[in-house]
Amino acid sequence: MTTPPPPKGPEPKPTQRVVVTSPRTRAPRARRPYSGTREINEQSELGAVYMRTLIRAQRRLGLSVCLVAGGALGLLPLLFSIEPELGKSRILGLGLPWFLLCVVTFPMLLLAGWFYVRQAERSEREFAELVERP
Amino acid sequence: MTSGYAIVAVLVVALGTILVGTYGLRVSRTTSDFYVASRTVSPWWNASAIGGEYLSAASFVGIAGLIFAYGPDMLWFPVGYTAGYLVLLTMVAAPLRRSGAYTLPDFAEARFRSRGVRAVASILALAIGWLYLLPQLEGAGLTLNTVTGAPDWVGALIVTVVVTANVMSGGMRSITFVQAFQYWFKLTAITVPIVFLIAVWQVHGADSLTTPEYPAFRQDTEVTFPHDTMIHAEEPLYIKGIGEIDGKYVNTVGHGLTAGYHRIGQGSEFVFPKGGAVPHVSTMAHNTNASWALPESSGQQFPLYGVYSLIIATFLGTMGLPHVIVRFYTNPNGTAARRTTLIVLGLLTVFYWMPPMYGALGRLYTPELLMTGQTDAVVLVLPTRMIDGIGGQLLGALVAGGAFAAFLSTSSGLVVSLAGVLSQDVLRLGGVRGFRISAMLAGIVPLAMTFVATGMPVADMVGLAFAVAASSLCPLLMLGIWSTRITKVGAIAGMLAGGVPALTAGLVTMLTDTGNAWYEVLLSRPAAWTVPLGFTVMYVVSLLTQRHVPPGVQQTMVKLHAPENLGLDGSGSSSADERS
């Protein structure tokens, strides 16, 4: 820090060296004088970068979850169409299409949703830490 | 089928809805109460309310009916209705809540700062809402017709009156309670009977559902034909009764029905013999139970196109439904909106496990519905058919009550949101009085439409509403939220380019008979071509008109995406343009 330590009480040590300074007033300011919040509010370049990063991260996350879940489901009709024998195979007494669409799909969607919420909240927390850092 | 208990159940549900609504009247006093329940709703209440509102006639009776008639391709309806919430959760939920928009037109205006975009979004929201209300009313007519024999228009009229009166008196707050209650009631009404039905099926020896034979009458079955019906008999049948076959009046002791197509006159009553193969409506495929259980058994032309179009419409259409969007405003912030949506996913999952079982059991126990074409009634008829005596009657009453709850809750949600759009954008009447007048108008229009629409399966009609939403409002939301380059011109062009063809295709399928033309599936399942069209036009036109990017888009993005509690300008619940 810039202030000298206060002289200590009763037992002065004659050999102690004291550095005397004053606050620097003319030197250029340090690089991060503002919090990220202020950067964003003043619509600076840096603020725009913060926001772009958050939006990109969330968009990538959302699209990946949708594409993985939607892609996995979307392959099924094609698969059953190309390979009709697949539609006749049975699992646990149910035809494969019934088993996949009635039993497997719903928990999978739920899991995907849970994963998304967890990740999205995490990236928002990270964003908050980033912009609130003084 | 006609049962006193079922009538009582329907009456109880209708009266109960009115009572809870009146209770709401005492607590809702200000304009804000009317619109958004003053944003004091917890995630579980809110999620139950969303579930209650979302599980419509299509979910309660329609899905089972379609699976019963057309096989596993129709499983994409429940899967798509649920997956639509995953897309909503990942792409829209939190930003939409953070936008502070109450209706879709509000969002359009907040994002694009343009009355023009708002006007187009309003018109589309109205069209989608009315298109969605229509099958609810038709479903109500069908239910009442099935349980009491009343004409179709009676059920539609009752639903319209109850819903409109309720919305006019209580507004959204009472609706939130009603809706949340309705979810749990609907879940009970569909789950309890199926448990008993499966037990009975097991006791009967758990007959295979996928034998390589045609569905057969389990006993001598008397069938009344409410409409002129073209049927196809798979094998010769000896039937008794009075009626008209192929234009000839028959009232002899018995009549031999040859294999092949026959036209049965309206009002005919025939007894079909036990063990005989069930004829089916001419529009259905010639399926044995075994071939019915396979993919692409629906007999549609281009089944793969149909399935993919359905997937696109339901996955992307959910976010564009006007009554779904409104619910997000009652969350306190974006994070709560996400959690609510996740709970909704769970609630839908539990519910959608049930309808396919009804559809499958229907092949064994109520196959004559394949012949009359009233496949949507399978959920309603099964309990009384499978269980004799008072037990079956009570379960039948429970299902009928649940179905009626489904029509009431979805219609309520739609009328509330449509009234919001009407009062703000069309009639421009503010305050509680404007809301009431709008609610009345929102209910009357679809009631009038029921008289001109042709009898199409309710789930198919709902599918059309999804297709219009997916091709117009979905691009607006997705691109509006995630891209800064969308312009006013692009937004309007994209909504029109996707929405107008989808809407036209929907109206053509509903109001005319396109028969077996090759383009029939392109019209009845338009999403696969209209959705890409909407997205592409919106994006390309925006790139061409970059000079018209709305002002302050960066700030709008901050508002949509930044967490509320960071003290950022424009974000958070304290922002200026939030409805007070």
TrEMBL record, chain A:
The chain crosses the membrane at residues 61-82, 94-117. Residues 1-13 have a biased composition (Pro residues). Residues 1-36 are annotated as: Disordered. It comes from the Bacteria. Keywords: Membrane, Transmembrane, Transmembrane helix. This is Uncharacterized protein. It comes from Lentzea alba. The lineage of its organism: Bacteria, Bacillati, Actinomycetota, Actinomycetes, Pseudonocardiales.
Automatic annotation (TrEMBL), chain B:
InterPro entries: Na/Glc_symporter_sf, Na/solute_symporter, Na/solute_symporter_CS, Sodium:Solute_Symporter. The keyword Lipid biosynthesis does not apply. It is found in: Cell membrane. Keywords: Cell membrane, Ion transport, Membrane, Sodium, Symport, Transmembrane, Transmembrane helix, Transport. One of its GO terms (molecular function) is acetate transmembrane transporter activity. The keyword Nucleus does not apply. GO terms for biological process: monoatomic ion transport; plasma membrane acetate transport. The chain crosses the membrane at residues 6-25, 45-69, 75-96, 116-133, 153-171, 183-203, 305-329, 341-361, 394-422, 434-456, 462-482, 489-507, 527-545. Coiled coil: none annotated. It is a multi-pass membrane protein. PANTHER family: CATION_ACETATE SYMPORTER ACTP, SODIUM/PROLINE SYMPORTER-RELATED. This is Cation acetate symporter. It comes from Lentzea alba. The lineage of its organism: Bacteria, Bacillati, Actinomycetota, Actinomycetes, Pseudonocardiales.
